[in-house]
Amino acid sequence: MKILISLSAALVGAFSYYSFKIFLLRRKYRHLPGPSSKGLIGFYFGQYFRIVKHISAKKILQDLHFEWFKAYGPVYAYQVLNTMVVIVNDESAVKTALIEEDLPKKGIGAFPLGERFLGIGLLTEIDKKKWRNRRAMMNNGFKKDILMQSLDEFNSKGDLLLQRLNNLSKSNECISLFNEINHMTLDVIAKVAFDLDTDSLNNPESKLNNYICRGLEAVTLDLTDPLCFLKPSKRKHINSLKQSIRNLRHFSIESLQIKLKELQENNFMAHNILSLMIKNFKTDDDFDFDKLVDDFITFFVGGQETTANALSFCFLELGQNPQVLKKLKEEIDLVLGKKSTIDQDDLARLEYTSAVFNESMRKWPPVPSFSRLSAQECEILGYKIPKNSWFIMPVYIMGRNENYFSRPKEFIPERFLKNHPFSKENKINSYTFFPFSLGPRNCIGQNFAKIEGKLILAKLIQHFDFKLDPDQSFDVVQYTTLRPIDGVKVFLTPRF
Ligand code: HEM
Hints:
single chain; 3-stranded antiparallel sheet; binds protoporphyrin IX containing FE
């Protein structure tokens, strides 16, 4: 009986403490506009149920953010359980957060659902000093001139994709372009970064892509439904997501052990991203094998899914915008003709192709938002933002903000052509368009992605006419990154 009374007292104490903390949290942010959460449920859960309902209806969180942006303006805050999230849709705020203040990160994606996924890899390392050393070393592998040395590899993987699509097109059946591109980007990052031959393009049953996608799904679930563990209906799904993460880790450990053994036996290793990681691993006392695996997974995930999604959205938009497709084809035919290997000069001349890739990332940024923590109180657009606020940097919403982009719902690549009159109607700069983030923690792989994206887009348009399946859905799903929910279903006809 005594134990029961003490337990009840402890529970009441803990609950009162939790309630008081929520009271203080809400008071700290009450000067900021945002969706109100009234009543007892609102007090304890904030927007939690609204978000879960929105996502269960197969909508993306970004569209809810956009609704709130329209209703509350460029700075607003909302509560989810015991956390307040601040969203800033303004170029000066983006500059302050990412450049002037270089706000710290939160390490999202490190251990979703309690499983080690990105762990303490380059993307999720929150200790600035440790991150700086690793980043400095890795930067060497991502300079444009170094990446250009891998152009042959990009070309040859692109040619394998063409061959496979050519074979598939003979059946006159609908093809999931998204799946094919997804396999190809996996093979590219594996070969270029790690000298690994995954050959998932010719082995569509390979599960690697699936493990990556499910790892990212786990990150989203963790973020948007932190109470999912309490729902018995989700248990099976959660377990299978956790198993996928474990499988990806297992694959990564095995691949690394093989590479380290090769290095030991031959005392030689190709100069690539993996060799830089191993250098970090050997020179940093604090760097252990688990962190090497974290980095391996980070580059695998960062280098594959994002670029595949960006390319897939290009095809979805091109399929709906025949005028743009016609112009793109004209440029590619003019620059490449029937040439099979794309070189650095060709890439530089494919200006409209770049504009198409950019416009696609404006409307459908593969990484639609990312987050930072405010290290101290700051003022943004006249609002005091408390210390330790969780900031969301809203790439997706900024790309649809009419203050910066004219006719934002339309797909108009001309806005990215500096000499085109329509570009003057837009305000495009590093703070309004930042699909790769900016500042010290920007995307290390952006040159990689731009080369790969442009080269594959050009090769596919050079070789095929395509039509979208009339049943194609244009809905989008967010598994950390944005992707077309239905893939990209096309009918392909070889052009020569
Ligand atoms: C279209 C393709 C891509 C997009 C849109 C993209 C976007 C981003 C964004 C927004 C960030 C910053 C995230 C944050 O601050 O939380 C980031 C970081 C990162 N990306 Fe990418 N990325 C792409 C391709 C790649 C590729 C191809 C690689 C590797 C080959 C890569 C590797 C990384 C890594 C390692 C980081 C962490 C950098 C650091 O914190 O130092 N990404 N990416």
